[in-house]
Amino acid sequence: MVCRPRRGGKTLERAGVSCREHTATAVPGHNVAMRASELKRRLDELYRHYDGRLLDPDPLELVREQATAADREVVGLVASGLAFGGVVQIKRSIVAVLDVLGSRPAAEVASAEPRELARRLSAFRHRWLDGRDVACLLAFAAQMRASHGSIEAFFGEGLNPDDPDVGPALASFSRRALALDDGGLYGDRRLPDRAGVRYFFPSPEGGSACKRLNLYLRWMARKGGVDLGVWRRPDPRQLVLPLDAHTRAIARRLRFTRYRSPGWAMAVDITHRLRRFDPGDPVKYDFALYRLDQWKDEERIRSLGGEE
């Protein structure tokens, strides 16, 4: 899933990884079973340590401030979509959008015309994205909610509860989102290939790690730690690690992945490894692993068996 405000966690996925290979980085001097249990204990300890008290700075803070589930899913889509670059700029950009949407973002998105939103966001700029791109994202969110009742239900249309992860559902979500009406924001023809709004909707089918969409799903679908749990689906066991530079670095130090290049395969690989420690909630460790590398917490990294 790509660029986030520098917050991330790792997961691994490879059916053929043996328990011996997986636990080779853990506490030397113990048998394999003890290594695995000890590594799980330490990961769970880190999950408890990196809780809401250590959330600042993170774009999720601005989502948590929203009062309703509707506002949280709308603002969460924007906040996760803009979660690339430095966290200070990310939060500044999210606040700029919130200033336009007011105190009831979901209601404002539902009632505002796309071109009016673009006009009100004309001064907006986040890296290479501009106000038109964000206005189109908001227009898509409004259509998802109008047709399905919520973004959750729109996403759920492409979700198979029997799938091992959200990969197929993410591909379906992005494909259907980009087929929605852009309200004439990019001209009268089909959505241009270079339209900025496309950046909000990557797909695993193209090999993208889909970091920002996986981050959005983590915020929405899992409950506990820093996450909101405002959605009932997907099941947390299906979530995939929001792979960013920090979680990639820490996962490689812990030998949680056999891949060298970031992408969907690496994100799933790390998730699969984390699933060994919590099969029902593998990405619970994401925020802690992200913070470990972001804050260069070498003592705790070494406690997990991380190599220099």
What does this 3D model show about the protein?
- By secondary structure, the protein is mainly α.
- The protein has one domain (about 20-305).
- Helix content is about 50%, strand content about 5%.
- It contains 15 helices and four strands.
- The protein has helices spanning about 20, 30-50, 60-65, 70-80, 85-100, 105-110, 115-120, 130-150, 150-155, 165-175, 210-220, 245-255, 265-275, 285-295, 300-305, and strands at about 125, 130, 225, 225-230.
- Strands 1-2 form a two-stranded antiparallel ribbon.
- The longest helix has 18 residues, at about 30-50.
- The radius of gyration is 19 Å and the shape is globular.
- The model is unreliable at about 1-35 (pLDDT under 50).
Write the layout of secondary structure elements.
Layout (H helix, E strand, L loop, with lengths): L18 H4 L9 H18 L10 H5 L4 H13 L5 H15 L3 H7 L2 H7 L4 E2 L2 E2 H18 L2 H6 L10 H11 L33 H11 L1 E2 L2 E2 L16 H9 L10 H12 L10 H9 L3 H6 L5
Antiparallel strand pairs: 1-2, 3-4
| Secondary-structure-derived class | mainly alpha
Looking at the structure, what is the overall shape? globular
Write down the overall mean pLDDT: 89
Distance between the termini: 26 Å
Low-confidence stretches: 1-34
Major beta-sheet overview: 2 strands, antiparallel
Main β-sheet, spatial strand arrangement: 1-2
Report the sheet-strand fraction.
under 5%
Please, how many domains? 1
Rg, rounded, reads 19 Å
Order of helices and strands: HHHHHHHEEHHHHEEHHHH
